[in-house]
Specification:
alpha+beta; OB fold (Dihydrolipoamide Acetyltransferase, E2P); about 25% helix
């Protein structure tokens, strides 16, 4: 490869099936294919990231609906049937939540299709992991 040499080890370790040349060659080509794919992703800048569900804080509650403010400042409407676990009645202003935003907008603007209450502790550990 330009700028780099890619090598596949010929050490079979404890695998006795690598004494069969056909299996050893097949596995070597499979390993090189994986190595080349990883190398090309790095060159292109393709980086796999684990995406966490968006989260926010309940900022307003009304009889039959509420709003969550996400970290970017956007407010998302949610209905009682979108709330998991403790349910709508278990939420209060300041409650941290994870949410899934529905495609398109409802009559009240962007709408959550799922709202899941989370603890302050799990939210704080996410903040520390992001730093």
């Amino acid at each position: 490869m330009p700028e780099r040499e890619l090598i596949i080890s010929n050490d079979p370790g404890d695998r006795k099936d690598h004494f069969d040349p056909n299996i050893a060659i097949r596995d070597a080509f499979d390993a090189m294919e994986r190595r080349l794919e990883t190398y090309s992703q790095n060159i292109r800048g393709d980086i796999k990231t684990v995406s966490k569900p968006p989260h926010g804080v309940v900022v307003r509650m009304f009889d039959g609906y509420g709003f969550v403010r996400m970290s970017d400042g956007q407010e998302i409407y949610f209905a009682p049937n979108a709330v998991l676990n403790e349910g709508f009645e278990g939420l209060e202003v300041g409650s941290p939540v994870e949410l899934t935003v529905a495609e398109g907008e409802g009559a009240m603007g962007p709408q959550a299709s799922m709202v899941r209450p989370i603890s302050d502790v799990s939210l704080e550990s996410e903040r520390r992991a992001d730093v």
